[in-house]
Each structure stands twice: as structure tokens, then as C-alpha cells.
Specification:
474 residues, alpha+beta, 12 helices
């Protein structure tokens, strides 16, 4: 029997796993996909929100503020990029100034520092490519950007190094209460546990409703994005938002930590919780709305488009804590934006609740940091030559767009929570994320993955058992 089973290995589940791994507990994370960071967390803007948008007194406001305060130090421990580039909310309307003032007052109530209103001239000076129609802006210098893949994987690796088990391709089918915990029925057999943390994203309502008479309802809210090439990554320096609506923070234009330009998302409620397809209508909406605030977005430099789903609970706030009628069952429900920013604080909050429930002690020598995969392109020539002397595979470039070597791919496969899919390699190394979108490096990546894991080419897949590349030999 496990002390705790965490359902879901997105950014919230991995944050919970990391924080719980600092306790003297026996922990299992189960995930229906084939890796961490496969659903909502992979299709994320990567914005560390300053915290002016959430209603004061809400769990969203509390977790946003605390998570933002934790993020820089956490990224340092996980050896991942953190760039405090600041954000601007833009209004093209005269009456929008009052809404910006409301957001400023709300942000100050939430503890956000250094917020200030900008006029047309100040905006243009900060962002030369801003729309000429921009009249007012709300500037939040404490906002930042991170890589959502690296954050999720980094927290998962720390959990793994502290003894947390991960079981993938495991879908929860039912949960039954027992005298001293729960029996979780999955497609891979039954799992016994004293406690459960429900971090199942868009499915968190269904998991909760298996054990509680108080029912929750999550709507999958689709957001579609464009990703542009690094050549135009400096088109804006800050994260540019439009005025928020009831559906979300609006379409943004932002640089990424890896130098690309991100445009999106829109917000459309969908019935299909697996509906991550892009649409012509949705992408057209993103293009039109982003152009209202940022001029001359170089859309000829688009290298891919994608969509993700946000877990919108009908109450509109994060639901965090023990279910009223299910002792030992702890919910992380409705974790939509600012979920990525809030994840470190949510993990800490849930671990504290679990520690009280289990009476667990803190580990004396818990591992709290890790080194990221080697990034040859960022090393100076002396460091590169040293690495290649140690292992010549680091001198063999596989992904030319992102300058990723064979050694880096091998390293990603053999790490804690090592990659077992092509997408897993991509998110750990960026092999295949460049302009050609794996058009050249995919065959070599498959060969390396097969060689290093001992699997046949026919057994390898993109992101799950239904996505094989090779059907047989000619």
C-alpha cells in the first residue's frame, strides 16, 4: 500500500510530487499518458503572471502571488531559464483606462508590486512594434517567462530522485473507499493507497466525482496558438496582453525563453476533453485579435500551430483541499490560468495538508535540485571540446535547427524519468522544435531511441501507443 497516489503528471501533479517527496512517504504518480507534461502543461504560454488578474481573497490570487514569489528560486534549483521580462496589458479604447485602473487596484490588493499605468508615448517607447491604436497600458515589471516543459520535467525528476514512483499509460477507471484508504481501479490493475491527490487536469472533476457526493463540473476551454521562428523572437520584449474577458486573459504576444515568438491563445469551450486540434476559425481569431495590439506580426515566420485545453471549473476558482465527505482525498480541481505560475505554491500547500493527514516527517536529506540536460549550443568552445573529448556523441549534431547533439538525446533518455517517446526527447532537449519541425532529425532520433532503449523501431511512438511511426519493414 502506498501512503499517497497522485493522479496526473502535469505541472500541478509534478509540483505536488516534488513537495511530497520531501516527506518520509511512499508515493506513486499515475498518468494516463506516456510521459509527464503531455496535456494541458505542454500547450502552455509559459507566463509567470504578476497576479493582478485574480479576484482578491480567492485561491487563485493566493496561489498566483505565492507561486510567482517562489518561481525564480525554484528555476535556479531546477537549472532552467527564468526571464523577468515584465508584461503589458494594452487598451485601444478610451474607456479601457478605467478597467486598467481596476486591475491595478486589484493587483495591489493581491500584493503585486511596482504596477503602474502607462500612456501612449510610454508604451511606444517600451515597445516600438506596439499598435499605433494603443492608448493606455498596465505595466507589471515582475511578470516573467519560463519553459513549461522544463519546469514540469524538472520537478518530476526531483520527485523521482527522492524515491517517488511514476507509472504511465495508466488510466483510472474507478475509486473505491476502504477502511484505511482507497482502492484505485486502473487499466493496469488495482492500486491501494492511504491518500490521494487529484491533479487530473480536465478530468479532475470525473476523478473527484468517483468518491464525493459534492459534484464538480469542468469545461475544457480550448486555446490555439501560433509559434514563430527565432528570427523574429524579439518582435516584442514584454508579454503583451489585451484587456481580459470572462473567458480568460485574452490573446497575448510574447517571447519565449528559447527565443521564439508565441501568439495566442483564444478561448473556446469544447465538449471533447481530448480536442486539441487546431481550427481555421480559431487561428484566424488569434491572428485578428493579436494584431489589434501588436503591429506587423511577421506571420510568414510561423513554424507551427498547436492547441491546449484549460480546466475551467464552473465556480471559477481553484478548488484545493480535502473533499468534505472523502477523508484522505485531496483535490486540485479547476487549475486553469494562472495554474503554471501557481503550481509551486499549490504543491507546497497540498504537501502540508498531506503531512498533517499522514503525520509524516520531513526527510533529513531530501534532494531539492538537479542539473538540466547539457545544452551544447550554450557552451563556449572550450567547454564543448571538453564535453566531446569525454563523449564524442556530443559532437554529432542530430537536430540542425536547434543544434542538438546525439549526446544530449542519449542524456535525455538515461535521466531520471528518461524519455521513452519522440515527444519526450523533444521536450527534454528541443530536438525537433526548430524551423523544420523534425523534418530532418526524426529518423536519426528514432534510431537513437531504439538503440538506447533496446526497443524495435516498430515499438517506438510519438507520444503514446496509438502514434507509432513505423508499421513494418519492406
Amino acid at each position: 500500500m502506498y501512503d499517497v497516489v497522485i493522479i496526473g503528471a502535469g505541472v500541478t501533479g509534478c509540483a505536488c510530487a516534488m513537495e511530497v517527496s520531501f516527506l518520509d512517504t511512499n508515493v506513486l504518480v499515475i498518468e494516463k499518458e506516456s510521459d509527464v507534461c503531455c496535456q494541458t502543461s505542454k500547450a502552455n504560454s509559459g507566463i509567470v503572471h504578476a497576479g493582478y488578474d485574480a479576484e482578491p481573497g480567492s485561491m487563485k490570487a493566493k496561489m498566483n502571488r505565492e507561486g510567482a514569489d517562489m518561481m525564480q528560486e525554484l528555476c535556479k534549483r531546477l537549472d532552467i531559464p527564468y526571464i523577468q521580462n515584465g508584461s503589458l496589458v494594452i487598451s485601444n479604447r478610451e474607456d479601457g483606462k478605467e478597467e486598467l485602473k481596476r486591475l491595478l487596484r486589484q493587483g495591489e490588493k493581491n500584493g503585486v508590486k511596482q504596477l503602474r499605468l502607462l500612456n501612449k508615448e510610454e508604451i511606444a517607447k517600451m515597445e516600438p512594434n506596439i499598435s499605433k491604436d494603443a492608448l493606455y497600458g498596465l505595466y507589471a515589471p515582475t511578470a516573467a517567462i519560463v519553459c513549461p516543459f522544463e519546469l514540469t520535467i524538472g520537478m518530476g525528476e526531483v520527485a523521482k530522485m527522492n524515491g517517488v514512483e511514476f507509472q504511465f499509460d495508466t488510466k483510472v477507471e474507478a475509486i473505491m473507499r476502504k477502511q484505511q484508504g482507497y482502492d484505485i481501479v486502473t487499466n493496469c490493475g488495482n492500486i491501494q493507497t492511504r491518500a490521494i491527490i487529484n491533479a487530473a487536469g480536465v478530468y479532475a472533476d470525473e476523478i473527484h466525482n468517483m468518491v464525493s457526493s459534492e459534484k464538480y463540473e469542468i469545461t475544457a476551454r480550448k486555446g490555439e496558438y501560433y509559434l514563430l521562428d527565432k528570427e523574429v523572437g524579439a518582435h516584442v520584449a514584454h508579454t503583451i496582453f489585451s484587456l481580459p474577458t470572462k473567458a480568460g486573459k485574452g490573446v497575448l504576444v510574447a517571447p519565449t525563453t528559447h527565443g521564439n515568438l508565441l501568439v495566442g491563445p483564444n478561448a473556446v469551450d469544447v465538449a471533447d476533453k481530448e480536442g486539441t486540434n487546431t481550427t481555421g476559425v480559431g487561428l484566424k481569431e488569434v491572428l485578428e485579435k493579436s494584431g489589434r495590439h501588436v503591429a506587423d506580426i511577421p506571420m510568414r515566420q510561423v513554424i507551427t500551430s498547436f492547441a491546449g485545453l484549460r480546466a475551467h471549473e464552473r465556480g471559477g476558482d481553484f478548488i484545493l483541499g480535502e473533499a468534505k465527505d472523502a477523508k484522505g482525498f485531496f483535490d486540485c480541481v479547476g487549475i486553469e490560468s494562472p495554474g503554471l505560475t501557481s503550481a509551486p505554491a499549490i504543491g507546497k500547500y497540498m504537501a502540508a495538508l498531506l503531512q498533517t493527514h499522514l503525520g509524516a516527517k520531513t526527510k533529513a536529506n531530501a534532494i531539492r535540485e538537479r542539473k538540466a540536460v547539457t545544452r551544447m549550443a550554450t557552451l563556449d568552445w572550450a567547454e564543448r571540446e571538453k564535453k566531446i573529448r569525454e563523449n564524442p556523441a556530443y559532437g554529432n549534431i542530430i537536430c540542425r535547427c536547434e543544434e542538438i547533439s546525439e549526446g544530449e538525446i542519449m542524456e535525455a533518455i538515461h535521466r531520471p524519468l528518461g524519455a521513452r517517446t519522440v515527444d519526450g526527447i523533444k521536450r527534454r532537449t528541443r530536438a525537433g522544435m526548430g524551423r523544420c519541425q523534425a523534418g530532418f532529425c526524426l529518423p536519426k532520433t528514432l534510431e537513437i531511441l531504439a538503440r538506447e532503449t533496446g526497443q524495435s523501431m516498430e515499438e517506438l511512438y510519438k507520444n503514446g501507443p496509438a502514434s507509432t511511426y513505423i508499421k513494418g519493414k519492406t
